[in-house]
Design brief:
This protein has about 240 residues and is of the alpha/beta class. The chain contains twelve helices and eight strands. The chain is globular.
């Protein structure tokens, strides 16, 4: 089933985004529909190519960034809320750890090992069918990973490799194993493992999480142009 056929979405510059009003609503919909959960924010809207846009529109894009929330509210979706992907995956684990199986891909071997160990400590009995780092050396290794996911048929697959690489990999896995929930996590495994700290609460509460990342990681500054372009499009009603 194509999720876009059963629930109304809002279009943001060619990207269909679901106006979920809470993480629980998103999880219930994903459980019923299956598909790839794609975090939509200002940077993704501005930079998405045709392939990424197709993946989002054929699956379940949700508001990960406040810019996406503001755009949908301007389009009449008053109840839409921001659902950070780095929190959503843990809501999914909390909801399904006793009933579904999981497969984890991403970050370094050290980080993914720590993530698995921590999940098993916090959720005794959690069924993790596979876990590996996010560094895929060649096409043969990529094919072997996709084969393994198809053979083990996990209910939930988390891929933390950064966008759009994670979405492209999830699309390939989905073709072989369509009956699963997939979610791209970016750097969430690093945060959960303790390797990287989450943005302080004040910045999150004031919708400035993206700005904090620029402050602490100056090498990200060239990417600020995407946010400025998005803001211009938003406040001139061009989204």
């Amino acid at each position: 089933m194509n999720p876009t056929e059963s629930k109304k979405t809002g279009n943001i510059k060619g990207i269909e985004v679901y106006p979920f009003d809470a993480p629980g609503s998103l999880i219930e919909y994903a459980d019923a529909s299956k598909g790839i959960l794609v975090a939509v924010n200002a940077e993704k809207v501005v930079n998405a190519d045709d392939r990424l846009r197709e993946i989002i529109n054929g699956n379940i894009g949700y508001c990960d960034g406040v810019g996406a929330v503001k755009a949908l509210r301007r389009k009449g979706f008053a109840d839409v809320v921001r659902i950070p992907g780095c929190e959503l995956w843990l809501h999914i684990v909390d909801r399904f750890h006793a009933s579904k199986s999981f497969y984890l891909i991403g970050s370094t071997t050290e980080v993914i090992d720590t993530v698995v160990k921590k999940l098993r400590a916090e959720y005794p009995g959690i069924n993790i069918l596979g876990a590996r780092n996010g560094f895929i050396a060649d096409d043969a290794e990529r094919a072997a990973l996709i084969d393994d996911v198809a053979a083990k048929k996990p209910d939930v697959v988390f891929v933390a490799m950064g966008s759009p690489r994670q979405e492209f990999l999830m699309q390939e896995m989905q073709r072989r194993h369509p009956h699963a929930i997939y979610q791209g996590l970016g750097g969430s495994f690093d945060v959960y493992s303790g390797k990287q700290q989450r943005v302080p609460k004040w910045w999150i509460d004031h919708n400035l999480e993206f700005a904090y990342r620029f402050v602490i990681t100056p090498k990200r500054l060239p990417r600020i142009t995407s946010y400025l372009k998005y803001a211009c499009l938003l406040y001139t009603n061009q989204l």
